[in-house]
Amino acid sequence: MSSKLVEADWIWHDGEFVPWADAKVHVLSLAMQFGASVFEGIRCYKTANGPAVFRLPEHLRRLRDSCHIYRMELPYSAEELTTACTTLIEKNGLEECYVRPIVMRGYGAAGMDPEGSPIETWIAAWPWGTYLGEDALEQGVDVCVSSWNRMQPNTFPVEAKAAGHYTNAQLIKMDALASGYIEAIALGPGGLVSEGSGQNIFLVRDGVLISPAAEGVALSGITKDSILTIADDLNIPTRRQAVPREALYTADELFFTGTASEVTPIRSVDRITVGAGKCGPITRQLQWRFLDIARGEADDQHLWLTPVRSSAAVV
Ligand code: PMP
Asked: Is residue 224 annotated as a catalytic residue, yes or no?
């Protein structure tokens, strides 16, 4: 599993490019003390026309929403952040990468009142391969149901992608790894299926693509939205419904979606084989179409790609 960061050369910090090794914050920044930062995870794919960022406007909009929920003033427009991301990719000479914008509360305030800590914006980009292991996209992964639940609505706002929420995600992930699984599916507070530690989940049963109705307990993923759109394009029927744990075992197909995980088939849950125990036909159809669009090999009919070279500033 490619869990170690692969360094690039430059990181964007409030309008300046700083060398990777110099991108530092004070240990008493509120982001460090209390997890007071919001972030995004974005992928840039190699295409025949150079690198292209997948659904950049939607990610930047979610970043702004996360800031708004946490009362943080994001001092940059979508256009400025678009240029910052694409210029960073270009300046680092990256053909294919993961992009991580972070908006954080910095050094100054001592306690819960963040007044006195400046807002800092950072954007990093680095090469990152398949998130859930070398063969994950092809062979699928073995997962468990986590002993940790997702947060109750009105405790943490799950639609904000805030760093502090990921202490819960790390518990889910570490719990899975400690038991010999690569990932886990978390249940929501009502005991119904919500999502993985950093990915949404889909089921297929009798030819219908099912997404858990998990408002308030799962992030509305941009990859999930892309898969639902592609399913419509391919005339695959879809349904949103409450999903009990046992439906995971009896699904014909099961898969994760996420920017890092892309479309990863799940071949077993709690060591119970799902369907035929390998990537199912509907999963494969959706996965191929998704990757073909992301890699610029299929018509970008929904305008999901932002080409880096035509959007980057000259540096
Ligand atoms: N749920 C969680 C908790 C996540 O962290 C992510 C990754 N951002 C997702 C779902 C998938 O979202 P997306 O497809 O927008 O990456």
From this structure: no
